[in-house]
Amino acid sequence: MAFGDSVPVQRAKSFRYILSNKAICINDGELIVGERGPAPKATPTYPEITVHSLQDLDVLHSREKVWFRVDEETRSAYEKIIIPFWEGRSNRDRIMATMTPQWHDAYNAGIFTEFMEQRAPGHTVAGYKIFQKGMLDIIRDVEESLRALDWLADPLAFDRQEELKAMKIAAQAMVRFAERHAEKLEALACAEADEKRRSELLEMARICRRVPANAPATFHEVLQHYWFVHLGVVTELNPWDSFNPGRLDQHLYPFYKAETEAGTLTRHQAVELLEAFWVKFNNHPAPPKIGVTAEESSTYTDFCLINLGGLTANGENAVNEISFILLDVIEEMRLLQPSSMVQLSRLSPDSFIDRAVKITKTGFGQPSIFNTDAIVAELVNQGKNIEDARNGGASGCVESGAFGTESYILCGYFNLPKILEVTLHDGYDLRTKKQVGLHTGKAAELATYPLLLEAFKKQVLHFAEIKIKGSNAIEKIFMAHIPTPFLSLIIDDCVARGADYIQGGARYNTSYIQGVGMGTIVDSLTALKVHVYDEKSISLADFTDALVENFEGRDELLYRLLYKTPKYGNDDDRADDRLKEVFDIYANAIAGHTSPRGAAYRINLLPTTCHVYFGKVMHASPDGRKAGLPVSEGISPVQGADKNGPTSVVKSAAKIDHLHTGGTLLNQKFSPAFFEDETAVRKISGLARSYFKMDGHHIQLNVVSADTLRKAQEQPEKYQGLIVRVAGYSDYFNDLGVDLQNEIIRRTEHETI
């Protein structure tokens, strides 16, 4: 780097250095090349984001589950080079030094988390652009934008110039990275004795010299082209795991159709290439997680969510032959990564959803089912044009976005049940022994349910304000110090505007704050309303004391809470009316705010594994949940509280306005015995369609018995391949923490509809 280089140019030159010097890994027999590290499953740390301590590395190396092996060479480099240079300079250090005492108090109390602790913005999805343009095409676009800079009228012309210069360096670096693979492949071909493999190596070398420099022209080329782009995005930064090709069937179908009609590709060859593509995703775990980040997302799946089906840009059914081929690949490969989903619209054929359910019923936890019509309506409600909305979908767990045109960034989880706990103590947190909230009245002063609800509302607004102020500061720090010139190349309209993805360059910008524990907060408010205010069987002060005491000696009260109180998920308005109240309070608290990059703040309702962490920082809750146990996940009912079957669950869940969120997560568990009936698949398909007619966003099935899960806990060696749906992703049951395993076991198991 030259003295005086701007931050974007520094970042681009660092990116170029990495791609020019990192080891090239070509695995035996593979047809798609490129690894994040020197071998499959290897992954980098990002000290410019957060500096892991030597103790962190020891924890990563030795912990029983979700571990990373750290060799002595890496540990030595951290001790002698990385920590001395980066300690105090990382973005994590900047963020924590900038946050206010109020923010730290709320954060430490477990009111919310922040996503930028050990990762960076970038939760986004590729659109059509990268499948239609090569890096050389994009470089020409960059040069055109440079020529068009208005140095007289535009005060940001210099900033745009530096960003565009950085984009060009990054694009050129990617071309060279592919050429390095071609050179390695040619060298391997020269030494290869097997003629078939030699031919494959030479063909891959040809492809690497062609893409991503140029737009792909064949089925094989388009897969390799995307994979190089994917590696570029995750090498440049740790972009909250979720970068992915989005609507893969739509992108691949033109290539498949052209080649099969020309006789240059068979279905068998296409499947083989897709399976090789699946292996590449599975080779790439998310980067190391420590502390709160490991608690809130206790998995190393990379959250790459392949979208299938949906609608075309002109509103027609988008299901095609590749959609079904990809479902076959998903079933055959049975890998955790990439995750997969089907977009189900009113126009989608029954054969499509039935095929997806037949895979899910095997207990794989994939594909999940999403409502295309709801996603389109959500995005249009946010101001996207209809074509961009139809070209969008969901990524990560359930998050809606306009693919290839939007920067939509997750800002952290928000613990709604914890806020009620604080409310019951006049804003005081008993665990941290700090006044973290407002003084809204002691329990004895909240004499009516409206007064309690108003106090809760004030606390939600208070903590939302703290959270958003903090997120705005975090975003400014990223804007100043961590631009992403490579990612910006492939998101419309960053090149045209000469503006970075993290600086508002994308066509659309959104920031999401994820609400957690909806079932728990709803059932808690219901219990308080019924027992304190309606039946007057206990005072609020006495009830609050029972929570602090974890219901010790309160067996009769606990019994009434668990078995004699209306619960969300049973189509009972006595509980579901509280759902609507909480939803409106939370949505209104977040709406109307704008981030520094011009993003509108909106809500999602999803937990990843944060519902386990949030439960650990809480006392008992009024719904009968004991201290330390997980709160509910997504918009699913409290574990075991839904007694009236899955139809009642979806009727309850549909009572909130999904179309004014960016995604909601609903998990349901079915017994394998349910699917012994030949009509079961059609029943599940009908359940999904019924829920979606009520504007539900997402539904996911876990098909496994609680008895099987208990046996897997007792004898894990016999269940090493057991996969379960956790929240918005699937994982091996054996790799989950005991708390999370128990939470999944407690979820209601349906045997009938």
Question: Averaging pLDDT over every residue, what do you get?
Answer: 94
Number of helices: 30
Termini Cα gap: 64 Å
Which spans have pLDDT < 50 for at least 5 consecutive residues? none
Strand order of the largest sheet: 1-2-3-12-11-15
Helix content, binned percent: 40-55%
Largest sheet: 6 strands, mixed
Shape estimate: globular
**What is the number of E strands?**
15
Q: What radius of gyration results from the CA coordinates?
A: 26 Å
* Structural class computed from helices and strand pairing: alpha/beta
Oligomer: single chain
Q: Which strand-content bin applies to the residues?
A: 5-15%
Features of the shown structure:
753 residues; alpha/beta; six-stranded mixed beta sheet; three-stranded parallel beta sheet; 30 helices; 15 strands; 49% helix
In short:
This protein has 753 residues and is α/β, with parallel strands linked by helices.
Can you characterise this structure?
Among the domains are: 99-118 and 399-634, no CATH class; 301-396 and 665-708 and 719-753, no CATH class. The protein is 49% helix and 9% strand. The protein contains 30 helices and 15 strands. The strands form 5 sheets. It has a 6-stranded mixed β-sheet with strand order 1-2-3-12-11-15. A 3-stranded parallel β-sheet has the order 6-9-10. Strands 4-5 form a two-stranded antiparallel sheet. Helix 8 (157-191) runs antiparallel to helix 9 (195-210), helix 15 crosses helix 28 and helix 22 packs across helix 25. The N and C termini lie far apart (64 Å).
